[in-house]
Amino acid sequence: MQKISTLILSEELSTTEVLKLFVSEFDNLELLDSTSVYSDILEIISNISGKSIFIVDLSTNKPLKLDLMLKVSQQCPNCKILALSDNPSVDLIIQIMRAGAREFIAVPIIKNEFFEAINKIVTQFEEPKRNNKCKIISVFSNKGGIGKTSLASNLALELSKITKENVALIDMNFQMGDITTFLDLKPSFNISYMLENIDKINDTFLLSTLERYKNTSLYILADPPYFKQADNIQPKQITKLFNTLKETFSYIIVDAEASFEGKNIAALDNSDMILLVTVANLPALRNTQRCLELFEKLGYEKDKTQIVVNRYMENDEIKETDVEKVLSRSIYWKIPNNYFAIMSAINKGVPVSSINSTTNIAQSYKDLAQHISDNLYRQNMVKKFENILNQ
Questions:
Q1: Mean pLDDT score of the chain
Q2: Helices 90-98 & 360-389, crossing angle to 10 degrees?
Q3: Which of 137, 185, 215, 270 could bridge to 180 as Cys pair (CB 3.0-4.6 Å)?
Q4: What is the pTM of this model?
Q5: Domains of the chain by range and CATH?
């Protein structure tokens, strides 16, 4: 069996010696000569034909090493990264994981923790990747015409660009969905076809059937082309579809229908987060109040639903504090009003960032995706590494 090439980067001699000693106890690891020249490390790993592990100590030179880790993770798919630090924090762990590390341990190194981390990495080489930590985010409003689909489509694309992970965007507007129009797509398959073939679905089927958006990791599941096709869809089928998609996708973004009928409630029930979209006027806020009341009756935890104010302007008659007072909820995010940028994007069938990535609305979508991604990383990492942080 071919051994896994292992490279260590640490400026601390004692840490390096301990790592070398521990690595030598693994029969399936082959330790390579160390170097502190970052460009050499990237070249060495790039030229390894088989599997490799990069062990990097971020106790010093953190920015440079994070940049190197990101390059390795992007350019060397057969290399997995184990990160170390003598000053672990939640924010650092988020940065480490976003840069591509698969495991993290604290310095000074405890032998059984190191062995456990290496064994997990070796297992990752042998097993297909499963995204069992998939998050389902529904974008919802019971009032039409306030930018729900724009938010869902732009958020999904930005998440795919930021995380580099597979993201599914589902159009649950069964009667008059717009996602394919917003992204100028003509998919061969739709949600009705997917539900009819649910028992045949696997990773290969999904990634070949769903419409991939250009060269990104975003995949689109369109609404049915004919109204009657939606009549046969049952709520339990939506649940089964989501459970199947979770095996392949890290994020599922749902452009939810503006209704409270069974299929849509099933989507909301299965969501980890609901972005409840509103605008700063009284009719919209009253509708939002009704949604919050219904969600409470459905038994949703308060934190599951987050308020997003679309088309927000600082000089609006109704201020941010007024919105929060009316809804008795904090605003999770504000999307700035930029009529010309959003209408230009819609009319051209492209995301806002394709029109001009420097506009305030494009930056807001990007920041929202980053915020959601960071918070989910934070939740996962705090739970995973809370024993390390409490040492």
A1: 87
A2: 120
A3: 185
A4: 0.71
A5: 4-127 (3.40.50.2300), 135-382 (3.40.50.300)
